[in-house]
Amino acid sequence: MTTLPVYRYSTPGPLHATLLAGTVPLFLGALLSDIAYTQTYQIQWANFASWLIAGALVFGGFAFVFALVNLARAERKAGQPVVYVLLLLATWGLGLVNAFQHAKDAYAAMPAGLVLSVIVTVLALAATWTGLRSAGAK
Question: Taking every annotated instance into account, which residue ranges of this chain make up the domain DUF2231 (predicted)?
Answer without folding.
Answer: 14-133
